[in-house]
Amino acid sequence: MKGALRNPAIQPAIVGGTWYPKLFQPGDEQKTVILHFHGGSFLWGTGRQSDYGIPASTVLKRIPATALFVQYRLASDPACTFPAAVQDAVTAYKHLLDMNIPASNIVISGDSAGGNVAIALLRYLSTANSNSLPSPSAALLWSPSVDLDSQCDPHNIDLHRNNKTDYITGFTLVWGVNAYIPKSVESTDPYFSPL
C-alpha cells in the first residue's frame, strides 16, 4: 500500500465477502460486477445475507449485475482503525481484477460509512495508486458519509430536521467516527471528509 494507506501497525488482511445473487462463475467476466461496502458507522454490519440480503436483491432487481459485498474490518476492533477498511477495499478491488474482470465492468458502491470507504478507494485509485490499478467504470453512493469532521458534534446532529427518521443517532455517529479515525490524523483529511 502507498500513501495514506501505508501504516506499519495496520497491514492489509484477507477478508471475506458475500456474492449476490450467486457466486461469481468463470465465464461471467463480461458482466457488470458491483463491489459494495456496507454501512454501519464503521463499527458493525456485514455484507452477509442476514444484514444485506434485502438491499442487495432490491438493487439487483434494477441493475443487471453480480455483486460482491465486502466484509471489511471494522473499527469496533481498536486494531482496525483507518486505514484498515480502505486497505480491504483495495484488496477486494484487486481480487476482482485478478479474477479477470475488466475494470470497465466494475462499479464501486457503498452506503453510509461504506460510501465513505468507497470514496476513499476511488481517491486512492486516482491519486496514490500511480496508475498501477485501472479505474472502475462507475460509482454508486447511497447516502455516503462525506463530512466526518462536522459530524462530530452529536447535539448538532440530533437537532437536524431528519433526526426523527435517521437510522443512527448523533452519538452513534460520533462513536463510529472517533473509533475509525486515528488520533494522529485530522478528521478534515480528504480520506475522511472528501467534501
How would you describe this structure to a colleague?
There is one protein chain. The protein has 195 residues and is an alpha/beta fold. The protein has one domain: Rossmann fold. The chain contains 5 helices and 5 strands; from the N terminus they run ββαβαβαβαα. It has helices spanning 49-62, 84-98, 113-126, 154-158, 170-180; strands spanning 17-20, 33-37, 66-70, 106-111, 138-142. A 5-stranded mixed β-sheet has the order 1-3-2-4-5, sandwiched between helices. The radius of gyration is 16 Å and the shape is globular. The protein starts with 16 loop residues before the first strand and ends in a 15-residue tail after the last helix. The mean pLDDT is 87.
